[in-house]
Design a protein that fits this description.
Order of helices and strands: HEEEEEEEE
CATH topology: Immunoglobulin-like
Number of domains: 1
CATH architecture: Sandwich
Largest sheet: 4 strands, mixed
Distance between the termini: 88 Å
Number of strands: 8
CATH class: Mainly Beta
Shape: elongated
Oligomer: single chain
Helix content: 10-25%
Structural class: alpha+beta
Strand content: 35-45%
Radius of gyration: 24 Å
Length: 128
């Protein structure tokens, strides 16, 4: 009879611990997610009634810096979207491989604990 009692108590303890683990809420991620577009996408004036030439920055690599150190890199997808996990802090995001004198490819973002900072950035291509 003692063996039956121990088995029932053991099974109940295992079931309870498994249930407790399964019900634990997932840890909230922190980082940055959004899109990057570039404008103008073609040189020349924009005529009245014409939409500005904005296109997604497709498959481009960016570096994320904290101070002077690169902490991560990411590549945008075919629609200019990205998502990257980061610890809380202030970051500078720069496009890799782009000469500093052409256009504007620098962005800043603040990441808060447990939140994804949503951004929609427009880079300046430097075309006029």
């Amino acid at each position: 009879m003692a063996h039956v009692y121990i088995s029932i108590v053991g099974a109940a303890a295992i079931a309870f611990s498994t249930t407790a683990v399964a019900e634990a809420p997932p840890r909230a991620a922190s980082g940055i997610e959004g899109t990057i577009v570039v404008s103008p996408a073609r040189p020349g004036p924009i005529r009245k009634g014409e939409e500005s030439s904005v296109v997604p920055v497709r498959n481009a690599q960016f570096a994320i810096k904290a101070g002077d150190a690169i902490v991560k890199t990411f590549t945008t997808d075919g629609e200019g979207r990205f998502q990257v996990a980061l610890p809380p802090g202030h970051y500078l995001i720069v496009r890799e491989g782009t000469p500093a004198r052409i256009g504007r490819w620098r962005f800043e973002a603040d990441v808060v604990t447990g939140q994804l900072t949503k951004v929609n950035w427009t880079a300046d291509s430097g075309m006029r």
